[in-house]
Amino acid sequence: MRNKVIVNIIRVAVSLILVAALFFIMRKELKDVFQLLLNVNRTQFVIAALAWVLANFFVSIRLKYFLSAQDIQVTVKEVVGLTLIGFFFNNFLPSSVGGDVVKAYYASKKTQGKTASFVSVFMDRLIGSLAIVSVAILAFIFSKDTPGNKVLIWPMTALFFTLMFLIFVLFNKMAMSKIYSLKLFKWAERLHSTSSAFKNKKMLLVKTFLVSLVAQFFAFVAVYFLIKGLDDFVPVIRVMFIMPFISIASMFPSLNGLGVREGAFVVLFKPLIGAQKSFALSLLWLFLYLALSVVGGFVYAFARHGKAGEYEKFIK
């Protein structure tokens, strides 16, 4: 318990320090940044917001496919609710009970065991991450002559092969048995036995991967229109190359990427649209994140959920 508290304190501290550092660095330009935010084109912003909503709708559909494959039947309405609640926990409740765990918990109430729901959420995140990395590589192929691309693509390529290796290990009985025998993960055997249900469902993996690409496309379209709303322009293909790096950076230990994500926006978009607009863009993107989190809070408040203490029982 003490270790969890320490980890949470570190996560919050990292985010607060990075946010403070970013505002300090941009202190002389904050007035211009806020002016950009006040003058953002409303039409472009609404289009971006709708694209963001569509992106997360398809993320929800991807999760529904994985849950259905484990005979966990949820409606579209329920799975969208799970996604929104996950946003709420990730952004507003800096606890060890992350959004993915909460989604798995709610899904587990549809079945007798929790392993199936956990594996479904795990596979959902794994395929989603693979899609993000794949988009960056595809964007590189179509814009490889852009300055800086060749340097950035190497870590993304390494991550792509790491994820592919993880998928191979996950579906390889001998590899998972070895991990279990070494007691690296006490749940390795159960994870393999449950995830192996996906091994013979290659079309499911293809379908969820394609849905992930669609979700990423709408997310990147949202960024594209936010930039247009700031009266600037970045080609969609360039946005498709940059955003995966920001998504991966957001996974750095912090309060759901807060501070890390905004810093990455400034660093990667600054050469294209300048520091002021890059910072304004990061704040607009943060607003979209928080807006869905607020909606998720209302869903959580009014949804039927278990008794106090059940989350702790679930994650033990």
Automatic annotation (TrEMBL):
Transcription in keyword set: no
Bilayer-crossing regions: 6-25, 45-67, 118-141, 153-171, 204-227, 239-258, 279-303
GO cellular component: plasma membrane
Domain of life the protein comes from: Bacteria
Membrane topology of this protein: Multi-pass membrane protein
InterPro entries recorded: L-PG_synthase/AglD
Subcellular location: Cell membrane
The protein's name: TIGR00374 family protein
Keyword vocabulary terms for this entry: Cell membrane, Membrane, Transmembrane, Transmembrane helix
Species, as recorded: Candidatus Aquitaenariimonas noxiae
